[in-house]
């Protein structure tokens, strides 16, 4: 049996980076959803307060996961990287809200399904691209890498 050369090559660094970023993002999403549900339901908080608290918790989990895992070799010091990370995530949240607003109010697609697709599918996809680029460009900069997709 022969082994093909392409099967033994390690994955490019940007693929490992993207995989780590995605894994951390899924964990942060789970924290956001779980905490929001608990704060909204059993704790009885209003939706905006519950979402604000769950967003801050999810941002903190995502930052810790990326700083200690995905970008452990390019970690900055102090509060600045965390603040920039939160700003990038707020920009991502704004993208999701903008997609929802355009679909719901601009295009008149007002069903629950349309809101879900525009906010949680299209908006999430665009926001994830923005968050990945912003995180690697402004928060966890590596020497010799200026934020390009290929590292």
Describe this structure in words.
- By secondary structure, this protein is an all-alpha fold.
- It contains 5 helices and no strands.
- It has helices at residues 5-8, 13-40, 47-70, 80-106, 112-139.
- α2 (13-40) runs antiparallel to α3 (47-70) and α3 crosses α4.
- The longest helix has 28 residues, at 13-40.
- It starts with a helix and ends in a 12-residue tail after the last helix.
- Residues 21-140 form the GtrA/DPMS transmembrane domain.
- It comes from Streptomyces violaceus (Streptomyces venezuelae).
- The chain crosses the membrane at residues 54-71, 83-105, 117-134.
- Keywords: Membrane, Transmembrane, Transmembrane helix.
- It is found in: Membrane.
Strand runs, count: 0
User: What is the succession of H and E elements?
Assistant: HHHHH
Largest sheet: none
C-alpha Rg (nearest Å): 18 Å
Mean pLDDT: 82
Instruction: Characterize the quaternary organization of these chains.
Output: single chain
> Which structural category fits the helices and strands?
mainly alpha
Distance between the termini: 35 Å
Task: Describe the global form.
Answer: globular
Strand content: under 5%
Q: Helical element count?
A: 5
Share of residues in helices: over 70%
Would you identify the regions where 5 or more consecutive residues have pLDDT less than 50? Answer: 143-151
